[in-house]
């Protein structure tokens, strides 16, 4: 590694990179005795791992939502008249999340559609509990 050239060889840079608190002293892992280069590799490695895990979490959250929704279909049925509107709103909001994310590219719309998705799923789930929807409507004064 001594013959390395370029910005990856930060140890040879000497005084080019300032010794600030980002590189010296107050590191959470200072007890490991890592060099600047090793700490930067650790930073970028953890950053990349965090990005990948966040992406996987988003994918699994989507699949988890669909699996949870489909599981209630085994109880009585998703398309009974009492819950057909909530089912359509839920499935439609999932589609609209993809439209907002990939076609319109709007973060705000995606957040709004996710909120609508969870509200529709909650309303859908309440249909399985006798008088639950009526109780919720009374709590909110409707």
From TrEMBL:
Alphabetical keyword list: Golgi apparatus, Membrane, Protein transport, Transmembrane, Transmembrane helix, Transport
Subcellular location: Golgi apparatus membrane; Membrane
Pfam family of the protein (one): Got1
Any GO CC annotation of this UniProt entry: Golgi membrane
Bilayer-spanning residue ranges: 40-64, 84-104, 111-132
GO biological process: protein transport; vesicle-mediated transport
Main location class: Golgi
Keyword Transmembrane helix: yes
Membrane topology type: Multi-pass membrane protein
UniProt key word Transmembrane: yes
Alphabetized InterPro entries for the sequence: Vesicle_transpt_Got1/SFT2, Vesicle_transpt_SFT2
Family from the record: Belongs to the SFT2 family.
Role summary: Nonessential protein required for the fusion of transport vesicles derived from the endocytic pathway with the Golgi complex.
Descriptive protein name: Protein transport protein SFT2
The organism of origin for this protein: Pycnoporus cinnabarinus (Cinnabar-red polypore)
């Amino acid at each position: 590694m001594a013959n390395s050239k370029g910005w990856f060889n930060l140890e040879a840079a000497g005084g080019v990179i300032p010794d600030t608190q980002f590189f010296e002293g107050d590191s959470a892992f200072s007890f490991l005795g890592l060099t600047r280069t090793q700490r930067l590799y650790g930073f970028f490695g953890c950053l990349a791992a965090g990005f990948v895990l966040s992406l996987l979490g988003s994918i699994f959250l989507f699949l988890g939502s669909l699996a949870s929704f489909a599981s209630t279909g085994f109880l009585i049925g998703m398309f009974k008249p009492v819950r057909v509107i909530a089912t359509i709103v839920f499935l439609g909001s999932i589609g609209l999340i993809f439209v907002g994310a990939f076609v319109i590219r709007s973060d705000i719309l995606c957040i709004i559609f996710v909120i609508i998705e969870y509200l529709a799923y909650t309303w859908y789930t309440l249909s399985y509990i006798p008088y639950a929807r009526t109780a919720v409507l009374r709590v909110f004064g409707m």
